[in-house]
Amino acid sequence: MLGLTSAHKTWMHRLPVGPKLALLALFSVVLFWLDNLWPMLVALVLVAALVASGGAGFARQALRLLQPVWFFVALLAVWHLWLNDPLNGLRIALRLVVAVTAANLVTLTSRLSDMIDLIERLLGRKVALTLGLALRFVPVLGERAAMLSLAWRARSQKRAAWRLVPGLTVGAFDEADHMAEALRARGGLV
């Protein structure tokens, strides 16, 4: 299981996770209250400057994490062009990119263990453990999907698409079963 903390150390890594998460929450609320494009563009420049302040390697890693978002931005653009409402589509897309980039910034500069400790203090051990396991399994399932896709391409010329779902599902249940056994062996979630 992997963490998402960046190996490119920045000044933001030294900040405690609690204030970073609180600022992210406040920033997100303000961002979604905004209706004018200019303040949203200022928010985009602010987040881009924070990402850039981490150096070139850090910025490249942050941009890579945005790759899945571009599909949704394109989908929003097409949908709002079809609705003949491109300005609203731009607003929504801008909010999405800024919010995800800000969240990625916090994730990249905070250790998962620190986040789990904070959640444990605020919400309790069971919730913290559940959230931590869910966050750690995302990259594991991504790697498993990539391996299944490679195996499929080695055996067939057809696109895998939905055909990977059963294998990925069984693998996820298998991982969950192993994790449950390990938790039971350590005394469970008392």
UniProtKB/TrEMBL annotation:
Membrane-crossing residues? Answer: 17-34, 40-58, 65-83
Tell me where on the tree of life, at the top rank, the source sits: Bacteria
Q: What is its subcellular localisation?
A: Membrane
Main location class? membrane
Record keywords: Electron transport included?
Answer: no
InterPro entries cross-referenced by the UniProt entry:
ABC/ECF_trnsptr_transmembrane
Membrane topology per record: Multi-pass membrane protein
CDD domains named among the record's database cross-references: EcfT
What are the annotated GO cellular component locations?
plasma membrane
Key words of the record: Membrane, Transmembrane, Transmembrane helix
Regarding protein family, the annotation reads: Belongs to the CbiQ family.
Question: What is the name of the protein in this document?
Answer: ABC transporter permease
Species whose genome carries this gene: Neogemmobacter tilapiae
